Automatic annotation (TrEMBL):
The UniProt record lists the keyword Transport: no
Protein name as annotated: NmrA family transcriptional regulator
InterPro entries tied to this protein: NAD(P)-bd_dom_sf, NmrA-like, NmrA-like_oxidored
UniProt organism field: Streptomyces lunaelactis
PANTHER family: NITROGEN METABOLITE REPRESSION PROTEIN NMRA FAMILY MEMBER (PTHR42748), NMRA LIKE REDOX SENSOR 1-RELATED (PTHR42748:SF7)
A Pfam family annotated for this UniProt entry: NmrA
Domain of life: Bacteria
Protein keywords: NADP
Family of this protein: Belongs to the NmrA-type oxidoreductase family.
Domain spans labelled NmrA-like: 2-289
Length: 303
């Protein structure tokens, strides 16, 4: 395949791009950063460009057979609509065989006032409607929450040194955690498996776990007792703002404010194996994923 990956300089798109390159497919992406500051992505062609400029997107898709798309952490509806319109137009003009859209999150069935959900719903709608009857197949994957969020400077030290897993989800909310690598496997399957065109998959991990069940799985992987602590979404948002900036942090935190409200407690849970069966996925159990991570790098650091 010759694959245009939108979002390959981020965590999710990057995991997908690396897996595709490992499997010897030709991968290219865009980056807004100056050439000297672009991330190292072995086996992946990185060109300068912006999703807001159609000519840049057209060049990215030119000659591609497939595309994997995740929208950046932008939550302004007008900007997201422009990105989606450019992506759909370029996909149609390039004559892609299939485009896989990763919504970055689950999306509630009913409309909400949460930008993190509604901008992703908007992008999906634009892509689907624009590519209807074009010959370009569309598959949508909607992931829950990423295990990789917990292997981070703001979680790793507390887990390793204090046995505390703090996250802004209510302890009783069942969540189908997934790793970036297993997400990439899901996107790869969605790009290649026959008979899934037009479908939407609420992909998830091998298990659906409450907060304390997640902590128990981490304890098994780390070989020590771990307890789950509900982090207030506002506190999470404040910490994230130092990394992503206030606007993107507010967008991401909107998901957790929504979950804390109790409006749809099953939103992040598993799909009873539907996506795993259709896409032939075998995501790793949480304790196995935990055991594979180099947690020693956080040992002795302040939480």
């Amino acid at each position: 395949m010759r694959i245009a990956v939108v979002g390959a300089t981020g965590f999710q798109g990057g995991a997908t791009a690396r897996l595709l390159a490992e499997r010897k497919h030709r991968v290219r992406t865009l980056s807004r950063r100056p050439e000297a500051d672009r991330p190292e992505l072995p086996g992946i062609s990185v060109a300068g460009g912006d999703l807001g400029r159609y000519e840049d997107v057209r060049r990215l898709f030119e000659g591609a057979t497939h595309a994997a798309v995740v929208i950046p952490l932008v939550y302004q509806a007008e900007k997201v609509m422009t990105y989606a319109q450019h992506i759909a137009k370029a996909a149609r003009e390039a004559g892609l065989r299939r485009l896989v859209y990763n919504s970055n999150t689950r999306v509630p069935e009913r409309s909400t006032n949460v930008a993190a959900f509604e901008t992703r719903r908007l992008a999906e709608t634009v892509v689907r409607e624009s590519l209807a009857h074009s010959g370009v197949e569309v598959v949508v994957v909607r992931p829950p929450v990423y295990l990789d969020n917990l292997f981070s400077p703001w979680n790793g030290p507390a887990l390793v040194n204090e046995g505390v897993l703090a996250y802004p989800l209510p302890a009783e909310v069942p969540t189908a955690w997934i790793s970036h690598r297993d997400l990439a496997e899901a996107v790869y399957a969605a790009l290649t498996v026959e008979g899934v065109a037009g479908r939407t998959f609420d992909i998830g991990g091998a298990q659906t776990l409450t907060g304390q069940e997640l902590a128990t799985a981490f304890g098994q992987g780390l070989g020590r007792e771990i307890r789950y602590v509900e982090l207030q979404p506002t506190v999470f948002q404040q910490g994230l703002a130092h990394i992503l900036g206030a606007e993107s942090a507010a967008g991401v935190a909107g998901i957790y404010h929504y979950m804390a409200s109790g409006a749809e407690p099953g939103l992040l849970s598993g799909d009873n194996g539907v996506s795993a069966e259709a896409l032939s996925l075998k995501p790793a159990p949480v304790d196995e994923w935990v055991a594979r991570q180099p947690w020693q790098m956080w040992s002795g650091e302040e939480s």
